[in-house]
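Hi X.,

You mentioned you wanted examples for the new student's onboarding notes, showing what a folding record looks like when two proteins sit in one file. Here is a clean example. The first protein comes first, with its sequence line followed by its structure tokens.
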Amino acid sequence: GAADQLIDAIVMQGKVNAARGKHTEAIRLMREAVNKNASLGLKSGQWLPLYELGIVYYQQNRYDSAIHYFGAAVDIVEQNAGNVFGGEEARKLFSSDARKVDLYNKIIASYVAVKDPRKASEYALRNSITAINSKYGQDLGFADSTLKADLVKAEEFKRNIDAVDASIAQADTKEKKNA
């Protein structure tokens, strides 16, 4: 409706200001959008202004603030993922927004930047669970602590493999430079 359009317009103004390097004004506008969204009780896209405000902070390397807003957006996305009804089309619509993927990537990268790999791993796991739940349109019982622990171990194993691969690639690059 009109309220959604107003919030979208404020977010767009914020994005334009951010692109022009006017970060203080961008933050002011994004906060205005977040506050209007909350005061109007809009449900459909309430995570978007939080995500966009997180982006402004992220682009300035203000990771603690980015984490705060990304985290609030993730909470809403995960809550909404459990409330998707309407069959395959509704699930497809919910899961097709590339910004949701970017949201998880940015919060994970922010936690890595502040040297908190435990939280980064937690959000990687949450991303996987949310994607699976929204794909199948139901909570598939990933709240089970044993299953979560197994998934955390699998994520840790993958990170270890990725770290080894990165080390090998770095060593190969150094070796080529010295040759």
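Then the second protein repeats the pattern, sequence line and then tokens:
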Amino acid sequence: HYKKYVKSLISINYINSGNDYKDTGSTKQDADALYEANMNYFADQIIAYYNVTLTDAHDLLYPEYVRLAKSIYTKVNYSVSDAYEKDGTYYVDVTILPIDFFNQTYDDVLNYINLFNEEVQRGKYNSYTLEQYETTFSAGLLTILDRACVNLTYADPVTITVEIIENGETFYISDSDFAA
């Protein structure tokens, strides 16, 4: 049941699949809220990584970055070992194939940004409103990133050992293990 618990935790955080929340002691509402918060967090990371500014077009574009985050995480690749005991403590090993999204898209995005900046210098967007400018830039960026989602690449596998903390009839994993 420890293996199922850890798999369910990963699922409700990154995949939001089915009834996995039941194996974590959570409610569907809480699990959905956690998933949405994680997708918003990842969307924020994508926006920050590419230094995208969403001022006037935030309400229009932010959902597209959340959609992208969800699309990327549908490709999450991991396995959870059977639980094992060592010195009276239970553990499971989680092997993750890290999604190499930022490295995979680096060259295409850099070329796009350079081309876009050349167009800015030539005055192509001088008559655009801030919303039109942000939308145009994001549309091109999102096209590249969406295309990468079709065939995501992965970095070398990483295995994390997760300690199961027992507390009477209940059990959980530590915050530090969960963040790992």
